[in-house]
Design a protein that fits this description.
Layout: E1 14-17, H1 27-42, E2 46-49, H2 61-74, E3 80-81, H3 97-109, E4 113-116, H4 120-132, H5 148-156, E5 162-165, E6 172-176, E7 180-184, E8 192-195, H6 203-213, E9 218-222, H7 229-242, E10 251-255, H8 275-280, H9 285-294
């Protein structure tokens, strides 16, 4: 695996860690936080700690408090973010809803996103047909270019639209800090939802919006998010067009999974993934961090 820490940045480093406050902090989370923190510290940069808490049905204050507690126990201090503030706050997404609504509207106004009125049944029917024909089963773009009259007709039926980002029709290639050059074909990256029909922004919008506005230069995260990267790069390019952020597209590095017993991916539901359990057993944070740092190298 590429030596991520020895990558030479071309501008001051701003790395981030942005967990959701759901359940107990787990080993995979700590490893991601560690590499982001270490990268920022190694290069004399800034480490941002923000919280992605837009899902009211899953997020809770107890989990938030545990995240803060565990980060402090591990000694992963942060320069900007929750509890310490900074120039780009607030640092909890639940307090940034007006920002996301404004960005979504700017994307609509610029023709970079659109309202889609498909029902769940219609979407599933078309996906089934695509699968049967051996075609990609993602969104087919049917509502990509609706006229104002067509939109009005759907709204007269009482339909509430989602907002979809309009993916440019091209292949997406980027240089991953860990994996090297990666390409996603355009057929595998369809238009995606950024705002639900009830007006709630999704991770697909909130995460890159925060990265753009907070000047994030490097994103180190788990490989489970690798497939999100072309969509996020497309959004950063769109943000540059509408004046959201400084036009920077972060560099990405996707870390391999932490494996558990039987060489299977360690799930956050596995007992051995519970960070609090290690602390309760008397493990030293320095020893735990050293072990996590060496996994996969």
């Amino acid at each position: 695996m590429t030596d991520v820490l020895n990558t030479t940045p071309t501008k001051p480093v701003v790395a981030r860690f942005c967990p959701s406050p759901t359940g107990n902090p787990h080993v995979g989370m700590a490893r991601t936080a560690l590499f982001s923190w270490a990268f920022a510290r190694h290069h004399g940069g800034t480490f941002v700690f923000r919280i992605e808490d837009t899902d009211a049905s899953r997020d809770n204050q107890e989990s938030y408090d545990l995240l803060i507690d565990v980060m402090r126990w591990l000694g992963l201090d942060w320069d900007q973010g929750v509890e310490v503030g900074g120039p780009d706050g607030p640092y909890r997404q639940s307090e940034r809803m007006d920002i996301y609504a404004d960005v979504a509207q700017k994307l609509l106004d610029a023709g970079l996103a659109y309202k889609a009125y498909d029902s769940a049944e219609e979407l599933e029917e078309r996906r089934d047909a695509a699968r049967a024909a051996g075609l990609p089963s993602g969104y087919d773009g049917l509502h990509r270019d609706l006229t104002p009259e067509q939109q009005a007709a759907y709204e007269a039926e009482g339909r509430q639209p989602v907002i979809r980002f309009k993916m440019p029709l091209k292949d997406w290639t980027f240089d991953d800090l860990v994996r090297g050059e990666i390409t996603f074909g355009s057929e595998n990256v369809q238009d995606f939802v950024i705002v639900r029909a009830n007006g709630q922004p999704l991770y697909t919008l909130t995460n890159p919006t925060d990265d753009a506005l907070m000047g994030i230069t490097h994103v180190l995260r788990g490989e489970d998010l690798l497939s999100s990267t072309p969509r996020q790069i497309a959004l950063y390019e769109a943000f540059a067009q509408i004046g959201v952020g400084d036009g920077t597209t972060p560099q990405f590095g996707h870390l391999p999974y932490v494996m558990g017993a039987g060489n299977k991916k360690l799930s956050k539901r596995d007992p051995e993934s519970n960070l609090l359990g290690y602390r309760d057993q008397g493990f030293l944070p320095e020893g735990l961090l050293n072990y996590l740092a060496l996994l996969g190298w």
